[in-house]
Design goal:
about 260 residues, alpha+beta, Porin, 2 domains, eight-stranded antiparallel beta barrel, two-stranded antiparallel ribbon, 1 helix, 12 strands, elongated
Length: about 260
């Protein structure tokens, strides 16, 4: 009986030692994997390679005929290819717009002959292709972006305030007294505030296409800091009335410059 007990004791002890060694090996293996991952990230940072699963970014956009703001959500398929989902809100101005001030009263400047504010709202998708990665963490990553989507041309009526014998009132181009719209001399005109014209909105749907180059110069790969330059072409279902006695356009072509900042994961 005693030899059997001794054998069982030795066996249990051996199993316990083996289990302990296995646990130590597993912990060591996990630490090695984690250390290898950290080392790979450090090498990637030093080499400038940008690798991520997704990102989000905001942008401030300067357009050849206006300005705007963008929001972007991106998903990487590989180091070299990504899909970008974008929302953009902008304001386009007509080249003939010229602000004027009333010299007789202190009033908001107005634009003589302006019919509508024009706000393109775009929702689209771009494909991003890596052209050149960073040579180091202080370098620049260059990508080519190409895509498009739907555009909603929102028209907000331009109303300026006039003051005559009947009192102060707001005039817009499609109002009954539009005859004085293009020549409100002697009526002490002033421009509309931000709250005017929203009750006379019109929506003109369309499509757009947008090729671009993006230069990402962020020092840290988990942060996105980039400049994007590109072109945009927009086609709407109907012509856009912007200014009196000027040709209404249905197709718009522009160049733009965007400063972008965001974060990667």
């Amino acid at each position: 009986m005693k030899p059997l007990l001794i054998l069982l004791t030795v066996l249990n002890f051996s199993l316990a030692v083996c289990a302990q060694e296995t646990n130590k090996s597993a912990v060591k293996s996990r630490k090695d994997i984690k250390r290898a991952k950290v080392n790979a990230q450090i090498r990637a940072e030093e080499e400038g390679v940008i690798a991520y699963h997704k990102h989000f970014a905001f942008g401030i956009k300067l357009i050849s005929d206006g300005f705007g703001f963008t929001f972007e959500k991106g998903y990487a398929k590989s180091v070299k290819k990504s899909t970008l989902f974008q929302l953009e809100i902008a304001e386009r101005k007509h080249q003939k717009e010229e602000k004027q001030s009333n010299p007789f009263v202190s009033a908001t400047p107005f634009i003589l002959g302006k019919i509508n504010f024009f706000y393109p709202v775009k929702l689209g998708v771009q494909k991003q292709f890596l052209l050149g990665n960073k040579s180091n963490k202080n370098g620049v990553s260059v990508t080519a972006n190409l895509g498009g989507g739907i555009a909603l041309g929102i028209l907000r009526a331009y109303e300026f305030e006039v003051d005559d014998s009947t009192g102060r009132r707001f005039i817009r181009y499609d109002s009954p007294d539009k005859a004085i719209f293009s020549n409100p001399v002697g009526l002490n005109p002033s421009g509309p505030g931000l709250g005017k014209g929203w009750n006379h909105l019109k929506v003109n749907p369309g499509i757009y296409i947008k090729p671009a180059l993006r230069f990402d110069y962020g020092r840290y790969n988990d942060l996105l800091t980039a400049i994007e330059v590109g072109l945009a072409a927009e086609l709407y279902s109907k012509k856009i009335p912007q200014m009196v006695n000027n040709k209404e356009k249905q197709f718009f072509f522009s160049a733009y410059f965007t400063f972008m900042f965001g974060k990667r994961k």
